[in-house]
Amino acid sequence: MTRKILSALVMASTLGMLLSVSACNTVAGAGKDVEHAGDAIHDKARDVQQGN
Question: For residues 16 and 18, what is the distance between their CA atoms, to the nearest angstrom?
Answer without folding.
Answer: 5
